Each structure stands twice: as C-alpha cells, then as structure tokens.
Amino acid sequence: MRRLFVLGAGLALGACELNAAGSAVPDEASAIEVSGQGIGWNGSGASMLISFGATQSEIEELLVADLQNRPATASNEECGAGPMQFSTFDNGLVLNFQDGEFVGWFLDGESPVKTDKGVRTGDPIGSFASAHGAEEMAESTLGIEYYSSAEGIGALAGENPEDARVEALYAGTQCFFR
Description:
8-stranded antiparallel β-sheet; 15 strands
C-alpha cells in the first residue's frame, strides 16, 4: 500500500511536480521537515508527507531528486528491532528501512532539516521540549534524552544539562543500543 500523501490545494502549482514515472518530486524551493509520522516538504503553498511504511525506492527517488545527491548506504544485522538498512544523505538525514519499508529517520550534526515545529539540531533542548510537548527520559542510557509520546519524536542532547543543545533528532524504529 502506498503511503505517500499530498496535502494542500495547489499541488500542480505548489511544491511538487510529477516526474516521468508519475511520482511527485519536490521542487528546489521546498524545505524538508521531519515529524513523528515521517518526512515531508513544505513550500510554495503545498505540502507532501511520506509516512512510515513507504517503500525504500519511493522515498529515495524523491529525496535524490530534491537533494541532488545519492545517499550512502549501510546495514546492521544486529539491531534490537531486527536487521535494518540505512540511507544517509549529505544534509545529515538518515532514513531507516526494514525489508524495503521506511520505518524511521535519524538526524544529527548541523543540518538545514527541521522538525514540523521548527526545531533544528543546535537549538536548546528546552525549545524541543516545549515545541513538541516532550518529557525528559530520566533513565536513558543515551545521555540527555527527551521524547514526545504524543508526537512520536525524540531528541538527544549534550551532557551539560544547564546548556543542553539538541544534538540529534529521531522518530520511528531506531537501531539504538540502550
């Protein structure tokens, strides 16, 4: 089942166009955003969301067209959730796949990618917590970690609680070793 959703009225005039295969491709003016439901593009009056469950080929085709670079790929057979494959783009966005299905994303380092609430890596962790209604996970073995159960999105921060900044953002299935 396809899990590609196009939201908003001006698709033909908005942020997407159809490629030769008939798939929607974000235009260069669009901005990639991540959320607890997947990844999306916003711009020019239209939005597109690719939800968890989309096929690996579908999502990579869209991102390669938008970002103009091919991802580096890797895999890990020992993830707690089972074997996973990863596609890492130059903007720091890592897509997680299992059996060819999009199951999660991870973002770290400096990146123009932001959450659907406008939070980026490097922002104060408090900004993430208030924007996403996240609470600190006191028993996390990954350092300072906040997670929003309502939105399904999390953030990892530096070790200094007084000046903690978002170092990574994530949603969906991960290959964390806790």
